[in-house]
Amino acid sequence: MPAICRDCLSDTPGPGRCRHCASPRVLRHDELLDLSVAHMDCDAFYASVEKRDHPHLADQPLIVGGGKRGVVSTCCYIARIKGVRSAMPMFKALELCPEAVVVPGRMDVYSGVSKQIRAMMEELTPSVQPISLDEAFLDLGGTQRLHGAPPVVLLARLAKRIEDELRITISVGLSHNKFLAKIASDMDKPRGFSVIGKAETMDFLRDQPVGMLWGVGAAMRGRLERDGIRTIADLRRYAEDDLFRKYGSMGAHVWRLAHGIDVRRIQARDPVKSISNERTFNEDIGDLDTLDGHLWRLSLKVSDRAKAASLAGSTVNLKLKTCDFKLVSRQVRLAEGTQLTDEIYAAARPLLERELSKGPFRLLGVGLSHLAEYSGSDAAPDLLDPDAPRRRAAERASDAIRDRFGSDAILKGRALR
Amino acid sequence: MKVSIERSALLKAMSRAQSVVERRNTIPILANVLIEAEGADISFRATDLDIEVVDKTAAMVEQAGSTTVAAGMLHDIVRKLPDGSTVQLNADAATGRMEIRAGRSHFSLATLPREDFPVMASSEYDTNFTAKASLLHRLFDKAKFAISTEETRYYLNGIYLHSATAPGGQMLRAVATDGHRLACIDTELPDGADAIPGVIVPRKTVTEVLKLLTDDDAQIDVSVSETKIRFATPDIILTSKVIDGSFPDYTRVIPQQNQKRMEVDAKEFAAAVNLVSTVSSERSRAVKLSIDEDRLILSVNAPDSGAADHELAVAYADEKLEIGFNAKYLLEIASQVDRENAVFLFNSSGDPTLMREGNDDSAIYVVMPMRV
């Protein structure tokens, strides 16, 4: 079975402790050399940075947080023994662990350290997808020839390097997709390294609670539990179509995850997925004419941002919040991508009319999604809408005027409603 | 219910039922087919709430009755059974299962109560007429390609069937458009169809109806109301809701004054379009037509991938013209022509172009040019 010593990085550590450095931190797994999707997560990141910079805090329980909202943002592992957790209100944390040292966060420092770590990751692969300051996915597929070592060696070397150079410990999860890599990194924290291979995926997932699945929060867990589904094994008793029928697209999603299938790719930079703008009113509005004015202004803002970023979107979304806080969300797909106010508004208006009876509303939002690079030309001429080119030209011309003389230089009468 | 039926007859009925049933839906009963046996017939009814198809076929009914089972699963089972076998369906109300026996195979399927199955309410039809299958087939088949998939203009997601006045008299007309191209197909108005209300037949219905129209000489009973359309053969009844919306006034879109006439062999033309568009980029598949006395040059210029041109002999006697089109639209239109040459009538490079087969005005196509 392939193995590697995480301390001396030898690939022939032998059975038991490493035969070269006597370290117990030997990783053994049948698929050790074949897996390439990794999730790296810093251990109690903010607290670790504080302890590194203030060595006298090293053996004391430490909480980073406080400030306006008065919650724990990170706590060190000593504080965790007492039951302190992130996002816990500070007074409760101090009840559990009165001897804890509380320091306010230094975000600029953490973000500096995060950048150093990211730079080290990017030396290994261009496919680094940061999730937050302290965690990232890495796709090391196809890098073996370049680095002359399999992904697992690169990752062990990187974890050791981060520890040596930055004095921050990190936990690594290695698997064959993102969902499992993320679970793995959490299995053996802190300073961990866990592997979930293809062969063991199904067995590993079987007895786990459904809440472990990515995207299954308290609400979904509740629905599943009412139907007697608690573990992933329970989920697997259903066919994909049955789950789809019961829970919609979320059902199909959890079915795939329950079978260890996750086809999401690791994207170096998450592209902008949607542009949206919303407005909460001082008083609830139920009148179409008044809403229409807001709809136009919101469409205009979305359009301005799309134009500035040179993007065009082919789905228009409408968001409404009723006076009793119910969220209504509707969308419509366009034949071709657009960035024009006129077209965004024209698509959103019928959606609003259809939902009007649910009003009055406290919030109205307009969004544009399924974005792509703007091709430089607007939609092809339309037999049924011969005036469209003139309206588009008018909008482009008024954009040019607004660019030069300010965004209020020229407005449609509709915008003043 | 206890019935014996020949496998091929069962397969035919189940294929029809299965294609109407939405594979993925959130209402369990809609995945089922309603099977009813009475007298010497067995009928299979499937619906997606917009379309309902009932297929009646002869069977040995030992015991009348009815039940519903998963359409997709029954279809798959029958499909895999050996050809020529006799299938026995036996629904037992006590167990809530339907047993299927064929040769040495045995299946037991879960059922749902027939009372839960939504049967489409029968309604009054304003117009009833009978038409030959070949005639209806031509109407739908030739217009189908132009149906829009756009969600914003949902009223374009079907074929507008209505009666219209043409130079040759009253016609039964099918029109479809997505704003970029339009198909307008005429056929003689069948007896009794003169008062037909204009209805928009949804895309899925068009697909299902075309499957009914395989036998050219068959007579199809068509019934139309403001909200529904029904097609019936002796064995099959397909009822569909029509799209609730008004179809735009398409007549002003059909150019009347286009003078520049080009005649070209449709097959050669389609092949040439297909050939040169190979180098165009996926997004803007524009083909430029440069037409000069009896000569047509098709060209594509895609800055990032390459360029191509191809010359064709055509009949054209007007002034020189350059005009661009989406390659896909040109191909689809050219492939509608099956007997004579394609005749294109142009006005200018910015105006809609008309295409028809020879001088036959009973099928005309309009396509919007694009800038090249």
UniProtKB/TrEMBL annotation, chain A:
Domain of life of the organism encoding this protein: Bacteria
Catalysed reaction, written as an equation: DNA(n) + a 2'-deoxyribonucleoside 5'-triphosphate = DNA(n+1) + diphosphate
Needed co-factor(s): Mg(2+)
GO function terms (MF aspect): damaged DNA binding; DNA-directed DNA polymerase activity; magnesium ion binding
Sorted UniProt keywords: Cytoplasm, DNA damage, DNA repair, DNA replication, DNA-binding, DNA-directed DNA polymerase, Magnesium, Metal-binding, Mutator protein, Nucleotidyltransferase, Transferase
UniProt keyword Ribosomal protein, yes or no: no
The record's free-text note on cofactor binding: Binds 2 magnesium ions per subunit.
GO biological process, alphabetically ordered: DNA repair; DNA-templated DNA replication; error-prone translesion synthesis; SOS response
Annotated positions binding Mg(2+): D41, D134
EC number: 2.7.7.7
Domain UmuC, first and last residues per copy: 37-217
Residues carrying the site annotation Substrate discrimination: Y46
Principal place of residence: cytoplasm
List of catalytic residues: E135
Localisation: Cytoplasm
Cellular component annotations (GO), alphabetically ordered: cytosol
Stated family: Belongs to the DNA polymerase type-Y family.
Function: Poorly processive, error-prone DNA polymerase involved in untargeted mutagenesis. Copies undamaged DNA at stalled replication forks, which arise in vivo from mismatched or misaligned primer ends. These misaligned primers can be extended by PolIV. Exhibits no 3'-5' exonuclease (proofreading) activity. May be involved in translesional synthesis, in conjunction with the beta clamp from PolIII.
Quaternary context: Monomer.
Protein name per UniProt: DNA polymerase IV
Lineage: Bacteria, Pseudomonadati, Pseudomonadota, Alphaproteobacteria, Rhodobacterales
Automatic annotation (TrEMBL), chain B:
Compartments, record wording: Cytoplasm
Entries under InterPro entries matching the protein: DNA_clamp_sf, DNA_polIII_beta, DNA_polIII_beta_C, DNA_polIII_beta_cen, DNA_polIII_beta_N
Matching SMART domains: POL3Bc (SM00480)
An annotated GO BP: DNA strand elongation involved in DNA replication
Domain DNA polymerase III beta sliding clamp central: from-to ranges: 133-249
CDD domains named in the record: beta_clamp
GO-annotated molecular function: 3'-5' exonuclease activity; DNA binding; DNA-directed DNA polymerase activity
Entry keyword set: Cytoplasm, DNA replication, DNA-binding, DNA-directed DNA polymerase, Nucleotidyltransferase, Transferase
Gene Ontology cellular component list: cytoplasm; DNA polymerase III complex
Domain DNA polymerase III beta sliding clamp N-terminal span(s) in chain numbering: 1-120
Domain DNA polymerase III beta sliding clamp C-terminal: 252-371
Pfam short name (any one): DNA_pol3_beta_3
Top-level taxon of origin: Bacteria
Main location: cytoplasm
Role: Confers DNA tethering and processivity to DNA polymerases and other proteins. Acts as a clamp, forming a ring around DNA (a reaction catalyzed by the clamp-loading complex) which diffuses in an ATP-independent manner freely and bidirectionally along dsDNA. Initially characterized for its ability to contact the catalytic subunit of DNA polymerase III (Pol III), a complex, multichain enzyme responsible for most of the replicative synthesis in bacteria; Pol III exhibits 3'-5' exonuclease proofreading activity.
Oligomeric and partner information: Forms a ring-shaped head-to-tail homodimer around DNA.
UniProt similarity note: Belongs to the beta sliding clamp family.
Protein name (record): Beta sliding clamp
Organism from which the protein derives: Pontivivens marinum
UniProt lineage: Bacteria, Pseudomonadati, Pseudomonadota, Alphaproteobacteria, Rhodobacterales
